[in-house]
């Protein structure tokens, strides 16, 4: 009589495991593979004791999955339309339940269009911890894993991504720096000219994100509320787009407001570091770009300042260097200049801009270009024939350091003048 009961008990256990749709315990996390929908059921799940690591909140009545990533990608976990349960989802790198390395965690608010997203590496495993947001609720449904592709801004070659996670500015900055896309690290977006800002507002649903702008209280021009605002790349905020009455350094808590958030209108507000209404953060990936910008550009007639960037290859032998100037006034002529030496001269020859090169300055004069309607131009720079005022042309070799800038025409107050981008230093390999 005992034998059938034992078998029945065993069958019941096996059946229960197969239909678990997520394991109650991390140590037995249910293996899943592939993109697409995966069923969950946390109706009989119990809490993981002491694990309130979702920005200070627990993932209640959690069930665990161990997902093996099919490829390198940004991956979105989405539940909206697939369950009535208000969920909270945490993602951990690897399979080690004793040393959980959290990548992200968030409540998913379908009214706000939010989701949870993380970077995956082919063949690596990730723990997905799925549970309820509110006390006393449980549910069933599916969550869907899909590949996410950040949006390319063709004007500047950068990819953008809005992340829905309610973090402090500093937490968001650090999270962004740990994201990767096409091999490039992310950063909170630098919207240092009208062109880049307009593209973001016209092409992305931004929510209410943090951006890469903060007030440096050690800056020589620091003063409240408007002085000392700098971007994460170290450049001063010469172009600004504050909401009327902002910045006001006037937090509801009574504290300082030294961090910038972006409104859907494109306008900015200074906010306190832990501002809870800032529910998203805006990430940019400077894919393909290399070199180091230096020497700030003065604002041009767009209200913003222009910037120079490089892509292609940093290897001299590849002879593949594209120089791009963006944030320019539309339909303006210009050209690129190069020197082995950095320098600084304000308003040279009556220009509105700063010359950031010194020494012998050569001009890629055969390549006069026009910024067109997009306010940007670029050239292929021939590394076998760099301009040199004394020698005519020189060949770029590994170990060479070169500095670049673009000069461009501008029209200010009805008179024709000129301006410069910031500088860019490249060390060739
Ligand atoms: Ca559990
Ligand atoms: Ca302030
Ligand atoms: Ca404010």
Topology diagram in text:
Layout: H1 2-18, E1 30-33, E2 36-41, E3 60-68, E4 73-78, E5 87-93, E6 102-108, E7 116-120, E8 125-132, E9 140-148, E10 151-153, E11 158-164, H2 169-177, E12 180-181, E13 184-188, H3 194-203, E14 209-215, E15 229-231, E16 259-262, E17 268-271, E18 280-285, E19 292-294, E20 307-312, E21 321-326, E22 333-339, E23 341-346, E24 354-358, E25 362-363, E26 369-370, E27 377-381, E28 386-388, E29 392-394, E30 401-412, E31 415-420, E32 423-427
Parallel strand pairs: 1-3, 14-18
Antiparallel strand pairs: 2-9, 3-8, 4-7, 4-9, 5-6, 5-8, 10-11, 11-18, 12-13, 13-18, 14-15, 14-16, 16-17, 19-32, 20-21, 21-27, 22-25, 22-26, 22-30, 23-24, 28-29, 30-31, 30-32
Bound molecules: calcium ion (3 copies).
